[in-house]
Design a protein that fits this description.
The protein is mainly α. It has 23 helices and 2 strands.
Length: 485
C-alpha cells in the first residue's frame, strides 16, 4: 500500500513553507538577473555594474515580486492540495529523468563555454543559450579540447595528439579512453558511444540529472522519507553556486553522486539479510568506492570522506542496536570487507597503470607539496550571500568568482537547529554531523599543528575548499532538523 494512502507522509510545516518561500524568492532574483545579463551580454555590454542597476529597475522588481508569488503559490499548492501530482512525479521519477536526458542529449544541450575559443580566434560563436564563462578556462581551454582530441585519436589511453611525446589521459586528466579506468567514470561513456557532440551533452546533462536524483534519494534517507524536504535538499545540493561554477572540472558532481550513493547502498546493505540484495549492495559499494577515489581531487574528497564516515557510523550504530544476531553481523562484516578489498584491488590496477604520471604530480609544487594548517575559513562561510554578484563574470567585486562560491548552507542556521535537536531528540545523524562540523570549524577557523593536520589529512584542504564540506553539513543539518520539527 502506498504511503500516501496510509497517510504517513508528514504534512507541511511552517518551517517548510518558509523555506519554500525563501527558495522562491532566490529563484525569482536569479531568473530576473540572469535574463538582464543575457540580454546585455548578447548586446555587447560586458559591464556587470550595469546588470546590477537593471535589477533595481521598477519593471524588474515587479517581475521578481510576481515570480516569487507564483513560485510560492505553486509550492503551496503542491504541498497542500495536489498530492496526486506530487505522487505521480515521485512514482515515475526515473522515467521522467530518463526522458529528459534523452531529449537534452538529442538536442545536444551542454553547459560548455567552448564557443569562447571561436571568439578568441576572431570568429563568431554563433547562437548559444545563456552566457559563456570566460573564467572557466580549465573547461573550454583544457578539458573540452582534450576530449575532442580523444575523439580524433580513437580514445587512446596515451594520446599522441595532446602532447608531442604522448600524454597519459587515463587517470590525472580523466579523459574518455578505452581503459579500465573509464569503467568507473560512467559519465564519459557517452563520448565512446555517441561521439563528440552528444557525448559532451551526455557528460553535462547526465551528471546534473544523476546528482539531483541521487540527492533526492539521499534526502529521503535523511528525512525519514519526507519527500518534500528531500526535494528541497536535492535542489540545494545540485544547484548550489559552488557545484554549478565548478561543474565541468575536478569531479565535483562525481564526488557528490558516489559519496551519497555509497551511504544509500550502505543503509540498504545493513537493512537486509537476503543474499541477492546483500551481494548486489556489496558490489555497488565497491563500485562507488572506486569511482569516488578516481575523482582525484583530495581538497574536496577528504572533507566528504569525513561526512561519509560519520553517516555510515550512525547507520552502523543503529544497525547494532537493532538486535541483529551474531551470525548476521559476521556475514555483513565479511561481505563489507570483501567489497572494500575489491575496490582497493581495482584502484590499485588503475593507479599502477599510471604510476609514472601520479609520481610526477605528487612531486610537483602544486598539488604535491600542499601543506595546509588551517585558518582563514570565516569569510568563506557566508559566500552563499554573494549569489547575485556571482551570476555573471568578470566582476570587480569578486576577482575570482569560482573561488568565492559556496553551498546554500545558510550558515550558521544548520548548526543552531542541529544543536537544538541533538539535545531534544538525541538524533544520531545530527550528533555525528555536528562532530564533523566542529572538527572542520576548528581546523578552518583556528588551525591545527602541522602533524595533526597531516594525520587528519586536512593538510590537503585549503580554507575556501573546506567550505564545501562545511556547506554540505549545514544543508544536511538544516534538512534533518526540519524533518524532526
Amino acid at each position: 500500500m502506498d504511503q500516501y494512502e496510509r497517510g504517513k507522509i508528514p504534512s507541511h510545516s511552517v518551517g517548510t513553507m518558509l523555506f519554500a518561500a525563501l527558495a522562491s524568492f532566490i529563484a525569482a532574483i536569479e531568473i530576473a538577473y540572469f535574463r538582464i545579463a543575457c540580454l546585455q551580454l548578447h548586446a555587447g555590454n560586458t559591464d556587470p555594474d550595469g546588470f546590477a542597476d537593471g535589477l533595481f529597475a521598477p519593471g524588474t522588481l515587479l517581475v521578481i515580486v510576481v515570480l516569487t508569488i507564483v513560485f510560492s503559490a505553486i509550492a503551496w499548492l503542491l504541498m497542500r492540495f495536489d498530492k496526486r501530482v506530487f505522487h505521480w512525479g515521485f512514482k515515475y521519477r526515473y522515467i521522467i529523468a530518463g526522458v529528459l536526458l534523452v531529449i537534452l542529449v538529442a538536442c545536444k544541450i551542454s553547459g560548455s563555454s567552448i564557443g569562447m575559443l571561436t571568439n578568441m580566434l576572431g570568429g563568431e560563436a554563433g547562437d548559444y543559450l545563456g552566457v559563456m564563462r570566460n573564467i572557466r578556462r580549465d573547461e573550454w581551454v583544457v578539458n573540452t579540447p582534450l576530449v575532442l582530441s580523444q575523439v580524433q585519436s580513437g580514445f587512446a589511453p596515451v594520446s599522441p595528439l595532446a602532447s608531442g611525446g604522448g600524454l597519459d589521459l587515463t587517470l590525472v586528466y580523466a579523459q574518455p579512453c578505452w581503459d579500465i579506468s573509464t569503467l568507473f567514470r560512467p559519465f564519459l561513456w557517452g563520448y565512446l558511444l555517441l561521439g563528440a557532440e552528444r557525448g559532451l551533452s551526455f557528460f553535462w546533462c547526465a551528471r546534473l540529472i544523476c546528482l539531483f536524483m541521487v540527492s533526492f534519494e539521499f534526502g529521503r534517507l535523511l528525512t525519514k522519507d519526507n519527500r518534500r524536504l528531500a526535494l528541497i535538499y536535492a535542489m540545494l545540493m545540485a544547484f548550489s553556486p559552488l557545484v554549478e561554477w565548478w561543474f565541468a572540472v575536478n569531479s565535483i558532481a562525481e564526488i557528490l553522486i558516489f559519496s551519497q550513493l555509497f551511504i544509500l547502498l550502505f543503509a540498504k546493505f545493513l537493512s537486509t539479510d537476503k543474499w541477492p540484495m546483500l551481494v548486489l549492495s556489496a558490489l555497488g559499494l565497491a563500485y562507488c568506492a572506486c569511482a569516488y577515489v578516481l575523482g582525484l581531487y583530495p581538497a574536496w574528497q577528504i572533507p566528504v570522506i569525513y561526512i561519509m564516515v560519520c553517516m555510515c557510523a550512525a547507520l552502523l550504530v543503529k544497525y547494532i542496536r537493532s538486535g541483529r544476531g551474531k551470525r548476521s553481523i559476521i556475514i555483513h562484516a565479511i561481505l563489507f570487507i570483501g567489497a572494500i578489498a575489491l575496490a582497493v584491488a581495482f584502484a590499485l590496477v588503475v593507479v599502477l597503470h599510471s604510476y609514472g604520471t601520479i609520481s610526477a604530480v605528487m612531486g610537483s609544487e602544486y598539488p604535491g607539496s600542499r601543506l595546509e594548517t588551517g585558518g582563514g575559513l570565516f569569510d568563506s562561510l557566508f559566500t552563499y550571500s554573494l549569489i547575485l554578484s556571482a551570476i555573471i563574470d568578470p566582476n570587480p567585486i569578486l576577482p575570482n568568482v569560482c573561488e568565492m562560491m559556496g553551498m546554500y548552507g545558510l550558515f550558521p542556521l544548520g548548526i543552531i537547529l542541529g544543536a537544538v535537536f541533538a539535545v531534544k531528540r538525541k538524533d544520531g545523524f545530527i550528533i555525528a554531523l555536528l562532530i564533523v562540523d566542529f572538527i572542520f570549524l576548528a581546523f578552518g577557523l583556528f588551525g591545527f599543528p602541522p602533524m595533526l593536520a597531516k594525520i587528519s589529512l586536512l593538510s590537503n584542504v585549503t580554507a575556501h575548499l573546506l567550505a564545501f564540506g562545511v556547506g554540505i553539513i549545514d544543508i544536511m543539518l538544516l534538512i534533518r532538523s526540519l524533518s524532526l520539527a
